[in-house]
Amino acid sequence: MSTLIPMFTSSEGEKEVLCAHQAIMDKWATPYKGVTIPTSFGETHVIASGPEDAPPVVLLHALLASAMSWYRNVDALSQSYRVYAVDVIGEGNKSRPIKPITSLDDFLHWFTEVIDGLGIDTLYLAGNSYGGFTGAYYAMKLPERIRKLVLIVPAATISPMRPFYTHMFIPKAIYGFFPKVPGVKRVMQNSVDWMHKGLPRDPLWEPLFYNSMVYGGLINQVFPRMYSKEEFAQIKAKVLLILGDKEAIYNDLYSAIQSARELIPNVKVEIISAAHHITAVANPEKVNQKLLEFFAE
Q: Which of 79, 131, 187, 224 could bridge to 127 as Cys pair (CB 3.0-4.6 Å)?
């Protein structure tokens, strides 16, 4: 039997994260079922909502944002769809890894095992940030299974993102190596503040994200990159790109939009007002509207 890899810096930290997780589940707006899918990389935790016979929608979260980052979207989506919010394995969440993912093809293998384990044939796929980066790859390699693709401020993918590395990834990496250095938690709080760009905080999800940033581990070894026009040409699904107007991870937001239009054939672009990087948390009503319209087209 393979040994589970600890995904939190301490047992106390894990309790903090799981307590914040449960606070959201207590407010989950629609009936749900927690599902555990065995894969080659460990056990993957999935939250399933909506009619079991409805068309499936799979949601992939941003780095360390967890499946909980979709809690304000599942109610609207699950009226018409079977919604699966996935805890991406290899991060500090409720999935339990036994080995790291070291390549995009590893991610593809894991994702295929997850959707096969859920009994899904074809699906609508939406991914935020890192979930958008990997989601684009799944759509390239599984064109017969991904019916429509939504990229919500995908990490790199369409544009360089030096500000993300400066303000979030590097501080997180430093904390991972030196968790007991005085003042490091304040640095992590500064990273979260930078991402929000002064917008209001979600009272349930924010404690979970902060605690995940502080106490959550990261073992996967795949850095986001831009894809080429030839790679995007492999995608057969219609593509919707959603960007918050306060998005800050890219070198320049409007250059990213232009790049997306050059790289992705017939991409549809939507700018969401009053929204930061975790766009579906910042302005869920508008994101829900855009997702439902796109899936229904």
A: 131
Contact (Cβ atoms closer than 8 angstroms) between residue 280 and residue 290 = no
Summarize pLDDT for 10-58 with one digit per residue, the tens: 999 999 999 999 999 999 999 999 999 999 999 999 999 999 999 999 9
pTM: predicted TM-score of the whole model, two decimal places: 0.96
The CA distance from 208 to 192, in Å, is 12
Give yes or no for a contact between 135 and 125, defined as CB atoms under 8 angstroms apart. yes
Beta carbons within 10 angstroms of residue 48's beta carbon: 19
Q: What's the half-sphere exposure (Cβ side, CA atoms, 13 Å) at 197?
A: 15
Q: Identify the CA nearest to 276 among candidates 184, 209, 223, 188.
A: 209
Q: How far is CA 60 from CA 13, 114, 126, 185, in A?
A: 23, 12, 6, 27
DSSP string, the chain: -PPPPP-BS-HHHHHHHHHHHHHHHTT-SS-EEEEEEEETTEEEEEEEES-TTSPEEEEEPPTTT-GGGGTTTHHHHTTTSEEEEE--TTBSSS-EESS---SHHHHHHHHHHHHHHTT-SSEEEEEETHHHHHHHHHHHH-TTTEEEEEEES-SSBTS--HHHIIIIIHHHHHHHH-TTSTTHHHHHHHHHHHHHTTPPPPTTHHHHHHHHHHHB-B-------BPPHHHHTT--SEEEEEEETT--SSS-HHHHHHHHHHHSTT-EEEEETT--SSHHHHSHHHHHHHHHHHHH-
- Among 20-29, 150-159, 187-196, 280-289, which stretch is predicted with the lowest mean pLDDT? 187-196
